[in-house]
């Protein structure tokens, strides 16, 4: 199994990355803040006003380290990647499966069913942790409804029907999400999903962590030779990494949502770490962003037993493992894609 390497997140505004032999040096003004060997990295993320020298770009591309550029709030801007290692036959088969409804439908069913099952598991865990019996009952009732929606999704006769079940499940899940918040319920009240911009602190937190997850999934797909832009569930659209968004669906609730809830319920993030603008848009302050990234990196070190492989692996390797299993299915080495099911 692949070794979990580090992802370097550079969030200090005005930082400049330059090459020093086989290491990347982070400078702020004339002061060197960090030097890290490139062979210890699997990804580099530059947040906001962070710049890289051309030699750094060259070193990362030669070493297979993808570089992502995001705004301070986590909106994706661009990605720099070196030569792709996958073979063209894998991508040809990926395009064939994604283009045909018959080829894509089994994978769409698996992804949607896994997403709903994982969302249901998160709700049930939230019900066990809820301090209020009424909120616990709300979560259990939502989990029951998700169980039936998931059953219908597993038998969907077409991709659009499966998408309909996925949308219905998402509405059901987020309608009960507020009941899982045990921390500062007033400051982190959640009335529904909002994005571009997020309109409350919980949505701002979720969107930021989703950006972290998306980066890891795109890197994983490229590392196994798949095209992140061509997906099964999400329709093709210029600039959209549809396959990365597909895999995000099954991993979103166990990896990202659980981390957001943990940060809120353990009061590791405070209401003062957010800025609410006159328009209602809610932004994360720089110390809060750094705190979330640190928590994400720690979370990735936790180990679980993979439900399909039966091996203990770090959570940070789940995106790579699922990308590897998807590539194996596309090649014909598996009868079906084994979507990730969280226990």
Describe it.
The chain starts with 5 loop residues before the first strand and ends in a 12-residue tail after the last helix. The chain has two domains: 6-80, Ribosomal Protein L15, Chain: K, domain 2, CATH 3.100.10.20; 88-331, Up-down Bundle (Four Helix Bundle (Hemerythrin (Met), subunit A)). It is globular and about 60 Å long. It has nine helices and twelve strands. By secondary structure, the protein is of the alpha/beta class. A hairpin with a 6-residue loop joins strand 11 (303-305) and strand 12 (312-314).
Give a brief outline of the structure:
The chain is an alpha/beta fold and 343 residues long. Helix content is 49%, strand content 16%.
Kindly estimate the percentage of residues that lie in beta strands according to DSSP.
15-25%
How many E-type strands? 12
**Helix tally?**
9
What is the CATH fold-level name of the largest domain?
Answer: Four Helix Bundle (Hemerythrin (Met), subunit A)
List keywords for this structure.
alpha/beta, four-stranded mixed beta sheet, single chain, 343 residues, 49% helix, Ribosomal Protein L15, Chain: K, domain 2, Four Helix Bundle (Hemerythrin (Met), subunit A), globular
């Amino acid at each position: 199994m692949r070794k979990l390497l580090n992802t370097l997140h550079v969030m200090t505004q005005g930082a400049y990355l330059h090459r020093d032999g086989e290491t990347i040096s982070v400078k702020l003004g004339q002061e060197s803040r960090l030097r890290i060997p490139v062979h210890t990295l699997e990804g580099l993320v530059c947040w906001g006003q962070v710049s890289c020298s051309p030699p750094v770009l060259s070193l990362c591309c030669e070493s297979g380290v993808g570089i992502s550029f995001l705004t301070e709030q986590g909106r994706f801007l661009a990605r720099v990647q070196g030569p792709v290692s996958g073979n063209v036959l894998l991508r040809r088969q990926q395009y064939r499966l994604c283009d045909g409804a018959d080829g894509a439908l089994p994978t769409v069913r698996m992804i949607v069913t896994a997403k709903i099952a994982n969302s249901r598991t998160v709700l049930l865990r939230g019900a066990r942790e809820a301090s209020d019996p009424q909120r616990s009952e709300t979560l259990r009732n939502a989990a029951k409804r998700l169980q039936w929606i998931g059953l219908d999704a597993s038998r969907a006769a077409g991709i659009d029907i499966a998408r309909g079940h996925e949308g219905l499940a998402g509405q059901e899940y987020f309608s009960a999400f507020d009941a899982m918040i045990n921390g500062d319920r007033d400051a982190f009240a959640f009335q529904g999903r909002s994005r571009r911009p997020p309109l409350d602190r919980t949505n701002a937190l979720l969107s930021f962590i989703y950006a972290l997850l998306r980066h890891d999934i795109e890197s994983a797909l490229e590392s196994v030779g798949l095209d992140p832009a061509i997906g099964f569930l999400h329709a093709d659209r210029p600039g959209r990494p549809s396959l990365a968004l597909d895999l995000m669906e099954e991993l979103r609730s166990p990896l990202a949502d659980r981390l957001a809830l943990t940060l809120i319920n353990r009061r590791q993030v405070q209401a003062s770490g957010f800025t609410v603008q006159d328009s209602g848009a809610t932004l994360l302050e720089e110390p809060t962003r750094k705190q979330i990234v640190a928590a994400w990196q720690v979370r990735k070190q936790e180990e679980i037993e993979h439900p399909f492989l039966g091996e203990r692996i770090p959570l940070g390797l789940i995106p790579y493992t699922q990308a590897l299993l998807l590539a194996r299915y596309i090649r014909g080495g598996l009868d079906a894609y084994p979507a990730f099911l969280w226990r």
